[in-house]
Amino acid sequence: MADFTIAFYVHHHGSGHLMRTMQIIKALGNYPILLMGSGLKKLIDIPSNVQLVYLPLDIASTREKESINNNSSMAYHYAPLGIKGGRDRVDIMTKIFSDHFPMILIVDVSVEVTLLARLAGVPTIVMHQHGKRQDLPHQLAYDSAELLIAPYPLSMYMDKKNEYFAKTVFAGGFSKFDELERSGEINSKRICILIGNGGTSINDEVLNTIASACSDYEFHVLGLCNEENDNPVNLKFHGNVDNPHQLLDQAHIIIGNTGHNTVMETASLNKRFIGIPESRPFDEQIEKAKAIENRSGITIVLPEELLHANWPLIISELSEKMVDWNGVINSSAMDIIAKNIIKTAKKCFQLA
User: What integer pLDDT is reported at residue 71 of this predicted model?
Assistant: First the structure.
């Protein structure tokens, strides 16, 4: 029996937080683990040492929206007044903190959950993301955390080297493709387009525009279905693909938003990349695009340019460049993260 519990809080927006967390959980071995979040119902094949804690969403009902005067606060990102879901979430989490202590909580991501845990005397580790995080809520969360973990290399760090930098472990990048065998077979005419779950500017009109302008290439869209009969013949929709590795492995170029998982998966596969930074809180995707835009074999196209860009020129110029993801993926990243979680917990609880 372990001397402490490892808990994770996972934000429900997009799929990246949960995918990253499940990789870290696997690296932690047989420690007792609690996984808390509002988007866990799609999980399958849960390890036997992992207990799921389903949290209600803290979203106002119609009646609550009408009855609450929700004044904003500089101290929080999202803490609406009078929401039953919010009260229920806090009730569940604080009971977990009490029942399973000693516990360390890894937060990916939420300022409010980080501070709630710290107020309950639970030490926290916070995943450090790209973006402009100098606001008061982030400062409070980062200051209260025992450790920050950046799931990317130091070379991609875009912020000032302040007191939070000093408590950050740069584990390096990783993705679900790291351990898969590469075929080495590249189809020079195949371009894969990744559509994530967090919202994108890569819509049907954009896809038709790109495919129509580049008839010499075949475009494979992953993550989106389209049953229209008038699509260009070189545009193929695959919907949600359980095992996209083979399609992506043989691609010449990958197009996608500059969310964390898309960038790391493209780096793992060592593919040329056309990155499209979407509007996200704290300019996260814009900052990540800046962190990679000067590398060879990477081109950044802004959402407002998608329908007017010279796609044949962009693709032909990118095809002539060698791709450089050197130093982004770290084969030891999972081991570094797991060891730092355990080391921090033992330090907090004064365990040998």
Answer: 66
What's the first-to-final CA gap in the chain, in angstroms?
15
Q: What is the pLDDT of residue 2?
A: 77
* Sole residue written with tokens 């029996």: 1
* Identity at 129, one-letter amino acid code: Q
321 with 296: CB under 8 angstroms? yes
- Residue 312 burial class via C-beta count within 10 angstroms: exposed 0-12, middle 13-18, buried 19 and up: middle
- ω before 107 within 30° of 0 (cis)? no
Do both 152 and 203 map to the same domain? Answer: no
Cα–Cα distance, 332 to 171 (Å, whole number): 8
69 and 170 both lie in a single domain: yes
- Residue whose token pair is 């693909």: 241
- Please report the beta strands in the chain, taking only residues with DSSP state E, as ranges in sequence order: 5-10, 33-37, 50-54, 103-108, 124-127, 147-150, 168-170, 190-194, 218-222, 235-239, 253-257, 272-276, 298-300
Burial class (CB in 10 A: 0-12, 13-18, 19+), 349: middle
pTM exceeding 0.85: yes
| Cβ-Cβ contacts under 8 Å for 189 (sequence gap 6 or more) | 216, 217, 218, 252
How many domains does the chain fold into? 2
- The span from the CA of 65 to the CA of 30, in Å, is 44
What residue numbers bound the domain in which 88 lies?
Answer: 5-174+331-348
One domain for residues 55 and 154 = yes
What's the DSSP call for residue 55? P
Q: What is the CATH number of the domain that holds 213?
A: 3.40.50.2000
Q: Average pLDDT, stretch 159-181?
A: 93
**Is residue 180 assigned to a domain?**
no
